[in-house]
């Protein structure tokens, strides 16, 4: 079975079971979050997570942090788990680490990243020395991330934007064997980098790949999402709302009547259900610092999902 046949079959199967909000679970409740299994382990993760780029990049002021504490409280109260962050996001790791309670830490699935250069850009520098510097820089950064996040062991570390990929993956696989991290992955946020992401999936042993995907940016459907499924790699989806641009064509418009068939009460929920309905997607990570937006996002991870026909209707509505 080729990738296109696999996708067609998977979407057909998903359509047949779209009324069931959980994957491989019996008798779910109507308010349960849809869950997906991480292929490499079988661990379950709710399909809606939380991004920290932007909203969690704040200072020490109580007025800045109080709304974020409310977001985290609501997030975990709903049964959600996965939060994505990065050293690239200025203060986000520190803020996330300081705002989590002990109870939150016990339930959280924290996905952070390593984002360093190989070090030493001089032309005469030996490759081995550059690798050594890159390895040292990556170890220092990941160690600091664990300290900022107040975690002895990290759940997932991803090579951010594939930077210094081979060097950082060597360290990450070593850390995984030693029990310092549970999962290893790679990320990017542009369509132009998806071919490189695909090559990384083909060359390396990975647990996760993070990529951009939405109803109007569907390039990942052609190769990357089927490849992730074939390779048994979990998929995190960033930029589900196109940094807000997704909503420009539908601003002020009423939802189509058929949105009720999908238990969708907002355009954001329709977009998230479109993404979640792809069988290769494991978790979507919209960033927010407002409880109302969080609750709307979480609702996109409950109830019925679109079949192949409804997916196309959603894409056309946003197009």
Question: If you had to describe this structure to a student in words, what would you say it looks like?
Answer:
The chain is of the alpha/beta class. It is 40% helix and 13% strand. The chain has 11 helices and 10 strands. Strand 5, helix 5 and strand 6 form a beta-alpha-beta unit. The chain is globular and about 60 Å long. About 7% of the residues have low confidence.
Q: Enumerate the strands of the largest sheet in spatial order, edge to edge or round the barrel.
A: 3-4-5-6-7-8-9-10
Low-confidence stretches: 12-28, 120-124
In percent terms, what proportion of residues is strand? 5-15%
Envelope shape? globular
Rounded mean pLDDT is: 90
The Cα radius of gyration reads 19 Å
Question: How far apart lie the N and C ends?
Answer: 31 Å
Overall number of strands: 10
Structure at a glance:
The chain is built from 11 helices and 10 strands. The protein has helices at residues 3-16, 62-77, 92-99, 102-107, 127-149, 165-178, 194-203, 224-231, 267-276, 291-299, 308-318; strands at 35-37, 44-46, 50-51, 82-84, 109-114, 154-159, 181-187, 208-212, 234-238, 283-284.
Blueprint of the fold:
Blueprint lengths: L2 H14 L18 E3 L6 E3 L3 E2 L10 H16 L4 E3 L7 H8 L2 H6 L1 E6 L12 H23 L4 E6 L5 H14 L2 E7 L6 H10 L4 E5 L11 H8 L2 E5 L28 H10 L6 E2 L6 H9 L8 H11 L1
What are its keywords?
about 325 residues; about 40% helix; two-stranded antiparallel ribbon; single chain; alpha/beta
């Amino acid at each position: 079975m080729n990738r296109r046949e696999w996708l067609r079959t998977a979407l057909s199967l998903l359509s047949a079971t779209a009324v069931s909000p959980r994957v491989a679970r019996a008798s779910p409740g109507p308010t349960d979050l849809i869950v997906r299994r991480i292929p490499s382990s079988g661990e379950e993760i709710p399909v809606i997570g939380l991004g920290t780029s932007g909203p969690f990049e704040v200072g020490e002021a109580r007025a800045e942090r109080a709304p974020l504490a409310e977001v985290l409280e609501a997030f975990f109260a709903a049964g959600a788990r996965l939060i994505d962050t990065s050293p690239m996001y200025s203060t986000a790791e520190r803020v996330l680490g300081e705002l989590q309670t002990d109870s939150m830490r016990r339930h959280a699935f924290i996905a952070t990243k390593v984002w360093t250069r190989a070090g030493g850009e001089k032309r005469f520098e030996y490759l081995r020395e550059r690798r050594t510097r890159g390895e040292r820089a990556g170890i220092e950064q990941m160690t600091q991330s664990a300290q900022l996040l107040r975690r002895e062991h990290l759940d997932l570390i991803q090579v951010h934007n594939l930077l210094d990929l081979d060097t950082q993956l060597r360290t990450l696989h070593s850390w995984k064997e030693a029990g310092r991290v549970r999962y290893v992955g790679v990320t990017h946020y542009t369509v132009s980098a998806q071919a490189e992401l695909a090559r990384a999936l083909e060359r390396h042993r990975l647990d996760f790949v993070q990529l951009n995907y939405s109803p109007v940016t569907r390039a990942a459907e052609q190769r990357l999402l089927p490849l992730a499924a074939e390779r048994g790699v979990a998929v995190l989806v960033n930029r589900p709302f196109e940094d807000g641009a997704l909503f420009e064509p539908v601003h002020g418009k009423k939802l189509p009547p058929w949105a009720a068939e999908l238990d969708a009460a907002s355009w954001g929920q329709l977009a998230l259900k479109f993404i979640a309905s792809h069988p290769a997607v494991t978790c979507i990570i919209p960033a927010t610092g407002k409880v109302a937006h969080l609750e709307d996002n979480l609702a996109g991870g409950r109830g019925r999902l679109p079949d192949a026909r409804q997916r196309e209707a959603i894409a056309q509505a946003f197009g």
